[in-house]
Amino acid sequence: MTTNDNYEIDELVKYVKNFKDSFLHDEKLNYLQIETMIYLLENNTQTITQLAEKIDTTPASTSIIIDRLAKKEMVNRQYTESDRRKVYVSLTETGSQEINRLLIKKNEIISTSLSPLTSTEKLIFAKLNELFQKIND
Q1: pTM (whole model) above 0.85
Q2: Transmembrane region positions (predicted)?
Q3: What domains are defined for the chain?
């Protein structure tokens, strides 16, 4: 990699950080809480262990995230009769409304950010996004 390549990667990282900061500005939820809620929106009821694997944290850390979301009335916990250690988590109606609002906000920020790009540049951006998702998987 050349110095120029490193500079371009640094600029991309700054752009992503700025996007994340503008998305979270004035919000009462942090990024991991939002990521957890998006996963619950897409997958309905999940166990703490399933959530931990998806958001790449430990079950203990995920329990803390769920505790904070439960205090904000964003999620419900359901305990199984056969094994009280197994906890299922789902979004509340309030949580569903909030995550849908945040997804709309995210799409508006993305749309505004991409508005100066040409159609071809937007396609390139979409392809880059696919490549980053492959890297993360």
Answers
A1: no
A2: none
A3: 3-136 (1.10.10.10)
How far apart (Å, rounded) are the C-alpha atoms in residues 55 and 107? 21
Q: Are 52 and 61 in contact (CB under 8 A)?
A: yes
Average pLDDT over residues 84-108: 92
Q: Give the 3-state secondary structure of residue 70.
A: helix
Tokens of 63: 């329990």
Residue 77, classed as helix, strand or coil, is strand
Is-contact 29 70, C-beta < 8 A? no
Residue with tokens 């979270």: 24
**Residue in the block written with tokens 């991309």:** 12
Tokens of 116: 């100066």
Cβ pair 69, 39 in contact under 8 A: no
55-87 tens-digit pLDDT:
999 999 999 999 999 999 999 999 888 877 788
